[in-house]
Amino acid sequence: MSVKHHISDAFLIDYASGSLSEGWSLAVASHLALCPDCRRRLSAMEGAAGALLDKASESGDEDVAWARFKTRAIDIKAEEIRPSAITPKSMAVLPEPLRSYLGGDLADLKWRALGRGAYQILIDTKDTETQVRLLRIPAGKPVPEHTHEGRELTLVLAGSFHDGDELFARGDIEEADGELLHTPTATDGEDCICLAVTEAPLKFSSWIVRLMQPILKI
After folding, report:
1. Domain 103-216, what architecture?
2. CA–CA distance, 183 with 180 (Å, rounded to integer)
3. Is the dihedral of CA 159, 162, 168, 174 positive or negative?
4. Is residue 44 within 8 Å of 61, Cβ to Cβ?
5. Does residue 69 contact residue 52 with C-beta atoms inside 8 Å?
6. Lowest-pLDDT range, 93-97, 135-139, 197-201, 207-211?
7. Cα angle at 38 between 4 and 191, to 5 degrees?
8. CB under 8 A, 24+ apart: contacts of 39-42
């Protein structure tokens, strides 16, 4: 199955420039490992940046060159990117660099129960800006309704989930913020395993879930 939901230009540009913090970078790098199209987008952006910086070195105006790079990167047209299916290099479910962060693949992990059949693993980083976790949502079950106090990236690694009319499957990434109130629901038949990166606690509609947040660290 080909990836249908891609990382935004804004995140990809910041990743290309090295300005993302560790948590965001881990999510973007893991998505890139599963998405050939976004790897091509990144390569095109880096090529554009290299050419502009070469010119900037000659003119001495690197700020102007960086502004032009961001404009050029956003203007890269979809027809320049040929879609292709994911071709895994191994049977591992977790892509690199995520697998190295966790010390193994799914069979090697120790999950912590969240209740209602859901589990999580908090992933240690040196990043004080974000919180990074692996989530396992049981098939057919929803994440309680919530919105966000900041940005969130959710990358599907196994299974899939519905969010409204949209289906997110392996390799797909969803970007969310405070404008989105949603209840992502794992599809039937297989648990949904996701990498989630947030910069602030979720804002749950249920007061019971809010009461449990400090204990569950979500």
Report:
1. Sandwich (2.60)
2. 10
3. negative
4. no
5. yes
6. 207-211
7. 45
8. 40/81, 40/82, 41/6, 41/12, 41/76, 41/81, 42/12, 42/15, 42/16
**Three-state secondary structure call for residue 22:** helix
Q: Other C-beta atoms within 10 Å of 191: how many?
A: 18
> Helix (H, G, I), strand (E, B), or coil: what is residue 106?
helix
Could you identify the residue written with the tokens 């606690």?
Answer: 201
Supply the DSSP symbol for 75: T
State pTM to two decimals.
Answer: 0.80
Take residue 110 and report the two structure tokens written for it.
Answer: 């120790």
Amino acid at 99: R
Of the candidates 55, 43, 35, which has an alpha carbon nearest to the alpha carbon of residue 15?
43
The tally of CA atoms less than 13 A away on the side-chain side of residue 166 is 12
Torsion of CA 189, 133, 197, 129, to 10 degrees: 170
Instruction: Read off the pLDDT band of 211 (50, 70, 90).
Output: confident
Contact between 12 and 40 under an 8 Å Cβ cutoff? The reply is: no
Residue 59, exposed/middle/buried by CB under 10 A (0-12, 13-18, 19+)? exposed
Any idea where the domains of the chain sit in the sequence?
9-80, 103-216
Question: Which tokens in the block code for residue 37?
Answer: 């199209």
- pLDDT class of 83 with cuts at 50, 70, 90: very low
